């Protein structure tokens, strides 16, 4: 057990140190949601007010509605960024050192996922603090309730990015693949607009958004922020996370996964 804890501290500590040394990464992670909050939300405020609906008790402004979606944006981009670093480590050879250690490969991948999730949670709470001083304030207990939702969502998007990294060997190719995953997942969800409003505009887009697991991740965060549990969203996100994680672990299995088919089992 001590050896496993030592491995966990090593992997998580390395990821946190990398994050602290990459200040531009931290700034970039906050710039995207803050632009939506300060610029786009201000312009859409009058046109896109949200009617009374769960978990809100009254009519709300647009910027209040999109806060959970922007939290999801932070985690989505961070999950892909963490997987991008895995591709980089694989190219540089440092991933080989990690994967040939005596620890089970699934445990090492879980450690990487946990490290990436912790980094995203730090970014989320900094963003929520800025939003608090901007005047968008949720119930105080909501900031505690949201923590389990952030952990599960962080694992889901991290496992997705990890799975994608098994298919892409070149760093440049993975950066392109990210754009085909991040933006459709984010915009075809309830992050920026309620599902009922999307259905009024396009039933096809509504159906796609209803099948998008990121929609339920955002709704899980939204309800948790207001001290409520959306059981349907929780179940869908947990099941999706388990499936993606199993596929990612299989992909990194040198005997059966994509790494073996690409001739990268040693990496």
TrEMBL record:
Q: Coiled coil located at which positions? A: none
Recall the GO molecular function terms of this protein's record.
ABC-type transporter activity
The keyword Lyase belongs to this UniProt entry's keyword annotation: no
Domain of life of the organism encoding this protein: Bacteria
Q: Which compartments is it annotated to reside in? A: Cell inner membrane; Membrane
Its record classes its membrane topology as: Multi-pass membrane protein
> Which keywords are on file for this protein?
Cell membrane, Membrane, Transmembrane, Transmembrane helix, Transport
Q: Which GO terms describe its cellular component?
A: ATP-binding cassette (ABC) transporter complex
- Membrane-crossing ranges are 26-44, 64-88, 109-134, 140-164, 176-196, 233-252
Q: Which residues form the ABC transmembrane type-2 domain?
A: 24-255
User: PANTHER family recorded for this chain?
Assistant: NODULATION PROTEIN J (PTHR43229)
The similarity comment for this entry is: Belongs to the ABC-2 integral membrane protein family.
Annotated protein name in UniProt: Transport permease protein
Question: Species name for this entry?
Answer: Halomonas salipaludis
